[in-house]
Design a protein that fits this description.
The structure is a single chain. By secondary structure, the protein is an alpha+beta fold. Helix 11 packs across helix 13. The structure holds zinc ion. Zinc ion binds next to loops.
């Protein structure tokens, strides 16, 4: 038996080698078909998955049905484990729906005006959920779950002009759109009857063997083991953690191609979270308009600690954009050649030539995508590690950030010169950083707290009044929503926009912390709430009235505009760091 310390599963996806791809994808297709058939049959029993959830999910599914298309007993167990997990999750959402259904009201919908289409009245939604929560004594995570379902109900309203009466009306059957098969239903990596997995940590590889349907649909064991080279981080985790049953999964690329990946799931011990009484400082991190991340530390007495930190990705965006352009060009070429090839008669000899060329370009495209994604991942790891390092250096035990939900919907980054191009990619990276931070925090015992960021870049961190942003410190005639410089009319404080936002997010974190310390219960509050205390800059003097920080730190020799960072010694990290630096930061 394992000890009582909390554990946390960490997932690392590893692409299967080429030789196993076709068989694995066929296996995933077959499993998906079975899973979707089972979901169709069991959808009307969703309520039963609400309460009775003792034991593995496959057992629960097995109570209701056998395999709709049998490919072996353990194969079905794995498929039904996948199905059961989906149904349990949906049952949780149904519970949330039943809580919020009575409070759904037209007040949640912002009616259409001449300028804007109909939308969600988020303040009203938030207030209603808050009130509902007070009556339930539920915690913060459920707030997000409830909000999520309310948002889905509003989307339903936009389509049907009314709110749904039942959960099933709101939620269509959650079919699997990509192949997904957890091996958790099988008998383990040594005795498994659908898969086998053996680790060779000295060689740094895993030997994976699996059952699959061949092209004729006949099921076999693979004749040979597939040797999967393990990434460094997986090897390292495996020395301390326990390997769980893996999940086979399909990934779809933007170009429509598919690859099979194996998720290595490693269960590691969770570090204890620090007691609230011991938390004294909060690191507030904000997704900047002109930096990827800006972070500032504020202590529980609302004093800023140390200098702010700007993570600037410099040449990274440009490199990613170049790779994207390269991919786009390859795409165009492929489309053109395909068209020319298809115009030929079926037995034309030149078809083979076209096919050869196409294969080369597709491979190149695949390489570009891989490079692109790898770079994103590397940057996400670097950024999250740097923030965690900063927490250690500044003695912060609480990291306060925007919630992921708003991250997806926020239009931040648009409208800023040259940024729009990278906007989509930034959203991807931010999501990745956010997720990494969340689990790394749990791993090292740091509290992670998320906030709704509404108004954080348009509130003065010093006096708490609403403030406007401008293009630059000297150009204060016209306020610009995405302006880089914040100026407060009330107290004349002014500063870099991203810096102000990060202080505000830290202020929200401090408010949360203080509530937790006093009442062990806290509700997120808005930036205008009087409980959110102002912060005055206590570093080496206030920011100088200089142009805002940015990537263009070079002098104006080239005739370009010259920017100075507002704080000497604030760090600018480029993502083009050498591998050794990444590793050092990974600690
Ligand atoms: Zn002010």
């Amino acid at each position: 038996m394992r000890d009582s310390r909390p554990h946390q599963p960490l997932t690392y996806d590893v692409r299967l080698p080429d030789e196993a791809q076709a068989d694995a994808l066929r296996l995933l297709d077959a499993s998906r078909e079975v899973a979707n058939a089972a979901l169709t049959l069991l959808w009307s029993h969703l309520d039963d998955f609400k309460a009775d959830r003792v034991g593995p999910a496959w057992k629960q599914v097995g109570k209701y049905m056998g395999s709709p298309k049998s490919h072996g007993d353990r194969q079905w167990r794995c498929e039904s484990e996948t199905v059961g997990r989906i149904l349990r999750q949906q049952a949780e959402r149904k519970k949330a729906f039943e809580l919020i259904q009575p409070i759904l009201s037209n007040g949640f919908i912002r009616p259409k005006t001449e300028k804007r289409p109909a939308g969600k009245n988020r303040p009203a939604i938030k207030e209603a959920i808050g009130a509902l929560q007070k009556s339930l004594e539920e915690d913060e995570t459920n707030f997000v779950a409830l909000q999520n379902v309310v948002e889905q109900c509003c989307n339903y309203f936009f389509q049907s002009d009314q709110f749904p009466e039942t959960y099933e009306e709101l939620q269509p059957i959650p079919f699997l759109h990509i192949g997904l098969l957890t091996y958790a239903g099988d008998d383990g990596s040594e005795k498994g009857q659908a898969y086998r997995l053996a680790l060779d940590l000295d060689a740094g590889t895993a030997r994976f063997r699996f059952r699959y349907p061949d092209e004729a649909g006949v099921w076999h064991w693979r004749k040979v083991d597939t040797i999967i080279p393990l990434p460094e981080v997986v090897k390292e985790r495996l020395t301390r953690g326990k390997l769980m049953a893996p999940t086979l999964r399909e990934e779809q690329r933007a170009d429509g191609s598919r690859t099979a990946v194996l998720d290595f799931i490693i269960e590691v011990e969770k570090a204890d979270l620090p007691a609230w009484e011991s938390v004294e400082r909060v690191l507030g991190a904000d997704w900047g308009v002109h930096t990827l991340l800006t972070a500032t530390t504020v202590d529980e007495h609302s004093e800023q600690v140390g200098r702010p930190f700007f993570l600037n990705t410099g040449g990274f965006d440009g490199r990613q954009a170049r790779t994207r352009r390269q991919i786009d060009e390859l795409k165009k070429k492929v489309a053109k050649y395909e068209e020319q090839r298809d115009a030929l008669p079926p037995d034309h000899p030149k078809r083979a030539w076209f096919n050869q060329k196409l294969a080369v370009w597709r491979r190149e495209m695949d390489l570009c995508w891989r490079k692109y994604e790898q770079r994103n991942r590397a940057l996400a790891h670097l950024a999250s590690n740097v923030l965690l390092l900063l927490c250690q250096v500044h003695g912060c035990s609480l990291l306060s950030m925007e919630s992921l939900k708003t991250l997806k919907t926020t239009g931040r980054g648009r409208g800023v010169r040259g940024r729009w191009r990278n906007y989509r990619n930034n959203t991807t990276i931010r999501g990745e950083i956010w997720r990494l931070l969340r689990y790394k925090c749990h791993l090292i015992g740091l509290r992670f707290h998320t906030e709704q960021p509404r108004g954080t870049s348009h509130t003065c961190p010093r006096c708490g009044h609403p403030a406007k942003t401008y293009r630059s410190p000297s150009d204060r005639i016209e306020a610009v929503k995405w302006g880089r410089w914040m100026f407060c009319e009330s107290c004349h404080y002014n500063g870099d926009r991203d810096y102000c936002a990060s202080v505000n997010i830290a202020r929200l974190g401090v408010t949360y912390l203080v509530q937790m310390k006093q009442k062990s219960l806290a509700r997120s509050c808005s930036i205008t709430d009087p409980r959110v205390k102002p912060v005055s800059y206590t570093g080496a003097g206030s920011a100088l009235l200089l142009p805002p920080t940015g990537s263009d730190t070079r002098p104006s020799v080239s005739g370009k505009k010259c920017y100075y960072p507002g704080w000497l010694g604030s760090a600018f990290l480029q993502s083009s760091q050498k591998k050794s630096v990444f590793l050092r930061l990974s600690g």
